[in-house]
TrEMBL record:
It holds the Pfam family PP-binding. NCBIfam families: PRK08172.1 (NF006031). SUPFAM superfamilies: ACP-like. The lineage of its organism: Bacteria, Pseudomonadati, Pseudomonadota, Gammaproteobacteria, Enterobacterales. This is Acyl carrier protein. InterPro entries: ACP-like_sf, PP-bd_ACP.
């Protein structure tokens, strides 16, 4: 799952996957703006059939946090 999330991030932000680790901060390290974050979340929701929403955004600061929210949504 984490590899797929990283691939989605690289496509949405047009960056190299080598720049991303589990602890990479989406805004501080990758300089993602709010529209890019929404694009990432929409793509993840479409890919995994989940419904990550705005209320989940505080947990989505890092790749690890995003994967944690995704895992929780997949088990709901």
């Amino acid at each position: 799952m984490e590899n797929t999330v990283k691939q989605i991030i690289t496509k949405c932000l047009l960056i190299d996957e080598a720049e991303i680790t589990s602890d990479t901060h989406l805004v501080e390290d990758l300089y993602a703006d709010s529209l890019e974050l929404i694009d990432i979340i929409i793509t993840i929701n479409e890919t995994f059939g989940t419904d990550i929403e705005g209320v989940d955004f505080p947990e989505v600061e890092t790749v690890r946090g995003l994967c944690r929210v995704l895992k929780r949504k997949l088990t709901e």
